[in-house]
Design brief:
Length: 76
Amino acid sequence: MMVGWKVSGSLTYSSVGATLRDYTVVIPVDTTAAATDYEQTIGFYQILNQGNGNLTNVPLKPKAPTLSRTDMITFQ
């Protein structure tokens, strides 16, 4: 799970690096931010359209990013 500031910058590129290394990434959208709504939308778009993309946001697609919310995430 990845959280942080600048969804269109450091969070996007950290998720790209993780998926390139075959990790499945979950990013809760309610724990990220950006300076503007536009920048946040672009960041989410970039995350879902990266190398091994997940354009339909399939939950926990292997080796790909998934956008979620904190109230939908549990650890087992």
